[in-house]
Design a protein that fits this description.
Blueprint lengths: L23 H17 E3 L8 E3 L7 H11 L5 H11 L8 H32 L5 H24 L8 H21 L6 H27 L1 H6 L28 H8 L9 E3 L10 H7 L10 E5 L2 E4 L2 E3 L6 E4 L6 E5 L15 E3 L5 E3 L2 E4 L11 E3 L4 E4 L2 E3 L5 E3 L3 E5 L2 E4 L1 E6 L2 E5 L2 E4 L8 E6 L9 E5 L2 E4 L9 E4 L7 E5 L2 E2 L21 E5 L17 E2 L4 H4 L4 H4 L2 H4 L14
Parallel strand pairs: 3-4, 4-7, 5-8, 6-9, 7-10, 8-11, 9-12, 10-13, 11-14, 12-15, 13-16, 14-17, 15-18, 16-19, 17-20, 18-21, 19-22, 20-23, 21-24, 22-25, 23-26, 25-27, 27-28
Antiparallel strand pairs: 1-2
Helix pairs in contact: 1-4, 2-3, 3-4, 4-5, 4-7, 5-6, 6-7
InterPro entries: Invertase/methylesterase_inhib, Pectin_lyas_fold, Pectin_lyase_fold/virulence, Pectinesterase_Asp_AS, Pectinesterase_cat, Pectinesterase_inhib_dom
Keywords: Aspartyl esterase, Hydrolase, Membrane, Transmembrane, Transmembrane helix
Family: In the C-terminal section; belongs to the pectinesterase family.
Length: 583
């Protein structure tokens, strides 16, 4: 990330060229979409950014008014909450906070479907017209993929067959909200201003609806009955009893999947084998993933063995392709390389060498590389938005924005991560254990930042927890004391470093502001029982949101068990994990 970025944005502002005249087909499309949209929404004259809001109507009954008003009072967008829910209350008005929550999610689903239709139509017309502005087409494709993922999460929230836990619901709503923020980021340099404004309006409206659903969930009877702590507060979720002992992998991994993570590759029966010499079932990773795309759809595990070699590919595992496991022959032996980057017209989201959005993604014994170099700015080696994902014994190599922990629950174990600026970033709920984090040499006089956590809403159960890891200078950056543990990408940025080794590359201040005083009182940064020459907190920043010495009770909130509910899903994957703090 660039030092001179605007507040709250991770992208350098570029002068936008004047829009081209629209073709007749696009004009008719826009008229039709606007006409359809006006049936249900109007643009508010007030509020942030003129956000599209449902038109307020009078409440149908006093019951509706009491139920809606009482549950909307703690939302961030109270006026939108009340007006949208009243408008949506028809023959069966909600009478309880739980019913109000369900209705709010249904409203968000409807808005997501509308936004998805708009994005698809605009993208289709631009492609038919042969638009040469690659970034604009890519940005709209980002929004389509992210909206598909949001719809998947929102529908899961209301699906009784899923029997979601409170942590599931908060995670899925948090991820759906993050998706809209990412869509808006991708659209920042979109060339066609009228279309951009339309998508901005839909995405912002959807973001606020999801934010309200997230806040409403905290007040519903179902979360109160569950008697769990608030995972969205400044200190993270906590309060549950830690597991005893040192289980090697978290609880949501099945016995069979644990075995897959520990078993020698020669003893694993793979669904597909990729080998460049023709000795496997496929010669490229993309072919293998396409060939087994339906295998994991019913809940089964799809295993793809990537034999030794360097694969120059960009891989995307979409939301609907669940339970994919990529198994390599070892770090530095099986290597996947890409070079997409922001400087050459890619969105950060689309720059990833490997991207995984499908739930249950696992990667083992692979090196992921983006070799664009430090001067190309945002260039992602690995992007993960897959819920309950595990990265085990891998290496992730890049410079700026190396690892995009985009959303949902993630766990990294025995993995090496290399980078320069904001090289662990995103808005997932993620725990790193026993990992080596290497700070590389960047451009001349450039500061390095290990993390840039993107929590934008105080009710999101997201953050970065680095536990029992090493943060050290790479061989080419020895002797430099210009590395910071993190800076706040968004207002409620949350990162903790616990029981880790920090070498002398860490600046005494420890943490760095994003821009002026932005987020310094609302962020949550903490350190707990770290060691090494860079671990002293005596010279650290004095921000009100920084906690130089967390109490043990507070630190336990960021363990595998408490922060990502890992005791419920990691055991089934077979990955080793420490459920609690050491000692």
């Amino acid at each position: 990330m660039n030092t001179y970025e605007m507040l709250g944005s991770r992208y350098v502002s570029h002068q936008r060229k004047k829009s081209m005249l629209w073709g007749c087909s696009l004009s008719l499309l826009v008229v039709a979409i606007v006409a359809f949209s006006c049936v249900t929404i109007i643009r508010s004259s007030g509020g942030e950014g003129g956000v599209v809001q449902p038109k307020p109507t009078k409440p149908r009954t006093s019951v509706v008014s009491r139920a809606v008003v009482s549950t909307c009072k703690d939302t961030l967008y109270r006026e939108l909450c009340e007006s949208s829910l009243r408008l949506s209350s028809t023959d069966a008005p909600p009478k309880t906070s739980g019913e109000v929550f369900d209705l709010s999610v249904k409203l968000a689903i409807s808005q997501a479907e509308s936004a998805r239709s708009l994005a698809f139509s605009l993208s289709l017309v631009r492609q038919k017209q042969g638009t040469t502005h690659h970034y604009s087409i890519t940005a709209m494709d980002d929004c389509i993929e992210l909206l598909d993922d949001s719809l998947d999460h929102l529908n899961n929230v209301l699906d009784p067959k899923k029997n979601p836990s409170p942590n599931d619901i908060q995670t899925w709503l948090s991820a759906a909200l993050t998706n809209q923020d990412t869509c808006l980021e991708s659209l920042q340099n979109y060339k066609f201003s009228t279309e951009k404004d339309m998508m901005d309006g839909h995405a912002k409206n959807l973001s606020q609806l999801i934010s309200n659903s997230l806040a409403l969930y905290k007040t519903t009877k179902r979360i109160k009955d569950a008697k769990i702590p608030n995972l969205g507060g400044g200190g993270g979720g906590g309060g549950r009893r830690l597991l005893t002992g040192d289980d090697k992998f978290p609880a949501w991994l099945s016995k069979g999947e644990r075995k897959l993570l520990e078993t020698s590759i020669k003893d694993i029966e793979a669904n597909a084998v990729v080998a460049q010499d023709g000795s496997g079932t496929h010669t490229t990773i993309a072919e293998a993933i396409a060939s087994v795309s339906l295998v994991g759809g019913g809940g089964g595990r799809t295993v793809i063995h990537l034999k030794a070699g360097t694969y120059n590919e960009n891989i995307n595992i979409p939301t609907k392709q669940k339970n994919v496991m990529l198994v390599g022959d070892g770090k530095g032996v099986t290597v996947i390389v890409g070079s997409k980057n922001a400087e050459q017209g890619s969105t950060t989201f689309r720059s990833a060498t490997v991207a995984a959005m499908g739930e249950g993604f696992i990667a083992r014994d692979i090196t992921f590389v983006n070799n664009a170099g430090p001067a190309k700015h945002q260039a992602v080696a690995l992007r993960v938005g897959a819920d309950k994902s595990v990265i085990y014994r891998c290496s992730i190599v890049g410079y700026q924005d190396t690892l995009y922990t985009h959303s949902n629950r993630q766990f990294y174990r025995d993995t090496d991560i290399y980078g320069t600026v904001d090289f662990i970033f995103g808005n997932s709920a993620v725990v790193f254990q026993n990992c080596n984090i290497f700070v590389r040499k960047g451009m001349s006089s450039q500061k390095s930042f290990v993390t840039a956590q993107g929590r934008k809403d105080p009710n999101q159960n997201t953050g970065i927890s680095i536990h029992n890891c090493k943060i050290v200078a790479a061989s080419d950056a020895k002797g430099q004391q210009s590395t910071y543990l993190g800076r706040p990408w968004q207002r409620y940025s949350r990162t903790v470093i616990m029981q880790s080794y920090l070498d002398d590359c860490i600046h005494p201040a420890g943490w760095f502001p994003w821009s002026g005083s932005f987020a310094l009182s609302t962020l949550y940064y903490g350190e707990y029982m770290n060691s090494g020459p860079g671990s002293s907190t005596s010279g650290r920043v004095s921000w009100s949101g920084y906690h130089p010495s967390l109490a043990t009770a507070e630190a336990t909130k960021f363990t595998v068990t408490n922060f990502i509910a890992g005791n419920l899903w990691l055991p089934s994957t077979g990955v080793a994990f420490d459920s609690g703090l050491h000692g």
